[in-house]
Design the sequence.
């Protein structure tokens, strides 16, 4: 690494001499500026910080706080990692994506797993100590089906530990070393890393013990479909099976993430690893340590993203926020007066970019917490104060993002009739026929769908739909928003472009 840095340094010096001082130093006339140079910044660029010549000081500081986690699994647990908590059976996932969603840390090195007796099969992962009295953080999927857990410290001691609590939705678990004493520990970072920052990962890949790798933060806010609150850091430090639950450090020796998943066609590292951000881990761990479980705030709305077309239909400048499909009866949102068509733009002053972000934000708050929701209704801004409830444990979530046809650009190419006249009952306008070659069919509008309202106004006959569309055109809208109920009873918003002729 030193040799590489020196070569880069020499190359940089040579380039600097040629560009900055070459002409003046050798008495030459500067050449004419090439045309493409005009695209470069007009002011000097501050030189980036050089990577450290060695990570040894960081490793010496934090390595004693990193542990290997060894688990004896229950007899009824799976023989492989195709059954991943929160993901279901990965055999149902397309082959090209299956390895992406597999977690690493369970089972031995690929291709070398020895036969195990029933009830005594094992798994290995990583973890790190966060307090002097021996609390340890790891992944939920490492210890989820554990019969017993042991941690091996950097000094070689292997100690029994117990599971204090675990959270499948974020894949975080908290352990406690049984033996009393004072243990070396590491601390969480106080701020999120930037894309391009150097990071160091330490863990137990393939059961080899404390292995160190380094790389940079490649991206933030990754949603890989692992759970409802995905917000992963992507790093390119080499990570493999067994690193699961291990820490990623910044150059100051602070934990910035917990290594959780890899994208790999073979099960080995290809430079795509994902870590749970430290702020998420710390919030979960605090609850696990206090209560042994995680309870999340609950708003009680179903929401969907605000697409460009929906933003046009609502008269918004930008496609941001979470569009309320409806508020569940009796929920905090309903009690606060939130309605279908509202766009939630911020929570306690923090902007909300999309429906997924609203879900994470609300779930990160405790039940009973009062929050101020800034929202837009019929072009007017308002604020609602909501006291959060408790997220139900039956699998419902505080908000969701509808992807099945929602947010496309469906256009009128439909035959319509009053829903009550065709036996569908209730209010609304039924879709009787869809032109199979038209854009509406391509965007998921189907026979049997019912249009409930257009531009926030309830409709009961086709002429109501036409009237609202003409009103939107007269107001200069590029699109009009319709709320549609499917034959299965699910409702969603669709934005219909007004620049297209009606069919």
Sequence:
């Amino acid at each position: 690494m030193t040799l590489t840095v020196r070569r880069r340094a020499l190359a940089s010096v040579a380039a600097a001499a040629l560009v900055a001082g070459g002409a003046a130093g050798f008495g030459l006339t500067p050449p004419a500026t090439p045309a493409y140079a005009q695209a470069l910044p007009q002011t000097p660029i501050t030189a980036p910080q050089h990577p450290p010549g060695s990570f040894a000081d960081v490793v010496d500081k934090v390595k004693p706080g990193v542990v290997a986690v060894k688990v004896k699994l229950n007899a009824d647990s799976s023989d492989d990692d195709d059954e991943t908590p929160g993901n279901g059976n990965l055999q149902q996932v397309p082959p090209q994506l299956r390895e992406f969603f597999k977690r690493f840390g369970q089972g031995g090195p690929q291709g070398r797993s020895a036969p195990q007796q029933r009830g005594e099969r094992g798994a290995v992962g990583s973890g790190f100590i966060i307090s002097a009295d021996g609390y340890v953080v790891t992944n939920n999927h490492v210890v989820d089906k554990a019969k017993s857990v042991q941690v091996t410290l950097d000094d070689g001691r292997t100690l029994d530990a117990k599971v204090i609590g675990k959270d499948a939705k974020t894949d975080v678990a908290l352990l406690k070393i049984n033996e009393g004493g004072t243990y070396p520990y590491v601390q969480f970072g106080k701020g999120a890393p930037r894309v391009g920052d150097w990071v160091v990962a330490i863990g137990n890949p393939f059961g080899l013990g404390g292995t160190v790798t380094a790389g940079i933060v490649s991206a933030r806010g990754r949603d890989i479909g692992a759970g409802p609150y995905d917000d992963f850091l992507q790093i390119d430090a080499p990570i493999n099976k067994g690193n699961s639950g291990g820490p990623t450090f910044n150059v100051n020796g602070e934990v910035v993430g917990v290594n959780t998943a890899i994208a790999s066609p073979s099960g080995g590292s290809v430079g795509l690893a994902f870590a749970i951000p430290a702020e998420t881990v710390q919030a979960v761990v605090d609850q696990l340590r206090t209560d042994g479980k995680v309870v999340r705030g609950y708003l009680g709305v179903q929401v969907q993203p605000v697409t460009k077309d929906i933003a046009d239909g609502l008269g918004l400048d930008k496609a941001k926020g979470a569009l309320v499909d409806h508020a569940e009866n009796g929920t905090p949102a309903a009690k606060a007066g939130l309605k279908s068509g509202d766009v939630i733009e911020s929570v306690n002053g923090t902007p909300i970019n999309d429906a997924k972000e609203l879900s994470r934000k609300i779930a990160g708050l405790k039940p009973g917490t009062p929050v101020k929701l800034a929202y837009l209704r019929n072009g007017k801004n308002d604020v609602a104060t909501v006291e959060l409830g408790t997220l139900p444990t039956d699998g419902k979530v505080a908000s969701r993002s509808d992807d099945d046809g929602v947010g496309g650009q469906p256009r009128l190419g439909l035959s319509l009739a009053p829903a009550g006249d065709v036996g569908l009952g209730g209010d609304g306008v039924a879709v009787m026929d869809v032109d199979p070659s038209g854009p509406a069919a391509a965007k998921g509008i189907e026979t049997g769908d019912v249009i409930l309202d257009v531009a926030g106004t309830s409709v009961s006959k086709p002429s109501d739909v036409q009237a609202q569309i003409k009103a939107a055109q007269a107001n200069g809208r590029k699109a009009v928003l319709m709320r549609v109920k499917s034959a299965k009873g699910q409702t969603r918003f669709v934005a219909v472009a007004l620049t297209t002729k009606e069919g």
